[in-house]
Amino acid sequence: MTQPTPIGGEHLHTALALAASGLPVLPLRAGKVPFGNCRRCTGNACGGRPNMKTPGPCDCPGPCHAWAAATTDPHIINSAPWRRAWLGAGAVAYHPGGAGLTVVDLDNADAIAWARETLPVTQTVPTTRGEHWLYLGTMQSANAVRPGVDIKSTMAYARWLGFGTGPMAHLPDAVRALAASKPTPPRPAPQSLAGSAPTGTGACRHRTPAFLERGIAMAEQRITEVSSGVHHAVYRTFLAVLSTHGRCDCLTDGHVARLFAAAQAKGETLRHCTEAWTNARTTLGV
Predict the structure, then answer these.
(1) Would you call 36 exposed, middle or buried from its count of C-beta atoms within 10 A (0-12, 13-18, 19+)?
(2) Does the model's pTM come out above 0.70?
(3) CA–CA separation, 251 vs 33, rounded Å?
């Protein structure tokens, strides 16, 4: 007898099956981006799960925080907040690192040709423009390790595109070396943001806790609520924050972390965040 599709649509049905096989899953919106923070988690008031190194939702009942929300718990996946997300989802994603896997994302024919000449044969999944090569083992995720090649493992998600063909090989050193040769840029330290405080007899207005907190909260909200052009919106937001607070020493590592976490919750990588922050600093000369 055919089992009825659970309330939440075909995506929920797929997600429950994948979770039962050990893949931590999460819903994606149209455009292959995660669901953003709910009101309860805006500004990562719940603790900022994207900064954690293990998957799993925070105390929020919804699928917040991108890859970090991925779970194999059927009670969470089938809960009311998640069912609402599945109904509005455009695809199912999974956290490769949470399942002990690494995905080599080959985005075009040239990248595929390189992989066939360089990497050991493994399970292959066709994608819209190329292929996913899946290996047993985890490593640091990294984008653009070479033209048309991304690595998705820990602290990343990959779209579920069905079961591939061929047996899965163990993660080779050749893939690990790709990330080692192109390390993820570190998050800027607060010292690099500090400049000379304004001169004069009055107190620096940026040191007023309410002024600074309101500015950071507004920046987080601006990133969280953007519906398209995330890359540009993140850069413009970073530029606005630095134009106001970048020439004194009021910004802290905690403020930078909050902005990066808000951007990562919208699907930005740490590398993209760092590049946007660096470009904004260069533009303003801070």
Answers:
(1) buried
(2) no
(3) 29
